[in-house]
Design a protein that fits this description.
This protein has 296 residues and is an alpha/beta fold. It has twelve helices and eight strands. The two termini are 34 Å apart.
Length: 296
């Protein structure tokens, strides 16, 4: 079992004033996130604007971020889309430049049946030695990978867990209960971490950890120590921040939030745009209620 960590940040991708990937800032941000509670980083996932990045940009990000953080944390490369062959190629390139693991997302748009999902992920996993973390996110793909398919995939040796953002807590419970051996479940939504860990989940792939990583880690520690009452209080305290980061499409709010702290991450790439004025107002109002953990 590869140790990817309990608190994984889905890292934003900084861009410069010309809209190009700012690799220097990406390396700075990666270390800052590890300094503020994160155990590992998803690079070029949804929050990292992966759909707008070229394969060349992705590979360079994996290499440079891994070089920057070394053994301090895991680099989990978001290498998949709805093209199985292209996903395999990018996954192999990510392994070659030093990525520690892969994030394998349920395909969007072509809506394969469950058998297609199984074969898609099985074939990607067979072409890499890296541990693979599945990702079910029905709000973006309009396709749910069922617990039966996930449990079936858990029997593949290097498929070691899932980031579950389907928000079906009953399905997640069945995965935790039925998956093979050391297969782990990470919450894919910050506002569900308390519930998923409470029923045996392992951790979270977080967006809010850009801002309050140490505080999320504290809440997770309380759950692990069995102090449910205090953990619940921390969950309730953090919940307004968790929710406000999704008032517009992720990563628009969190990228603005990071910039507002004084860390230059640039604007989103089209087709994403900077937040609306009303988003800025509510985001600033909520953020004012919290101490921010990100070192700038």
């Amino acid at each position: 079992m590869a140790e990817l960590g309990r608190l994984i940040t889905a890292m934003i991708t900084p861009f410069d004033d010309e809209g190009k990937v700012d690799y220097k800032q990406a390396k700075r941000l990666a270390n800052a996130l590890l300094d503020s509670g994160s155990d590992g980083l998803v690079v070029t996932g949804t929050t990292g604007e992966g759909p707008t990045l070229s394969a060349e940009e992705k590979i360079r990000l994996y290499a440079e971020v891994k070089e920057a953080i070394g053994d301090r944390g895991a680099v989990i490369a978001g290498t998949t889309d709805n093209n199985t062959a292209a996903s395999i190629e990018l996954s192999m390139e990510a392994e070659a430049v030093g990525a520690d693991a892969l994030l394998l997302t349920v395909p969007a748009y072509n809506k394969p049946p469950q058998e297609g999902l199984y074969q898609h992920f099985k074939k990607i996993a067979a072409n890499t030695n890296l541990p693979c973390l599945l990702y079910n996110v029905t709000s973006r793909t309009s396709l749910n990978m069922t617990d039966e398919t996930t449990i079936r995939l858990s029997h593949i040796d290097n498929i070691i867990g899932i980031k579950e953002a389907g928000s079906d807590l009953d399905q997640i419970a069945r995965i935790i209960d039925g998956a093979k051996g050391e297969f782990r479940v990470w919450s894919g939504n910050d506002n569900e971490t308390f519930y998923i860990m409470g029923m045996g989940g392992y951790g979270v792939v977080s967006v809010a950890s850009h801002l309050v990583g140490n505080q999320i880690k504290h809440m997770m520690g309380l759950i692990l120590e069995g102090d449910v009452e205090q953990a619940a209080a921390e969950h309730r305290r953090l919940l307004p921040l968790f929710k406000v980061l999704f008032v517009e499409s992720n990563p628009i709010p969190v990228k603005y939030a990071v910039n507002s702290l004084g860390f230059d991450a640039g604007k989103p790439r089209l087709p994403l745009v900077p937040p609306q004025e009303k988003t800025v107002a509510v985001l600033s109002e909520v953020m004012a209620n919290y101490q921010m953990d990100l070192p700038v």
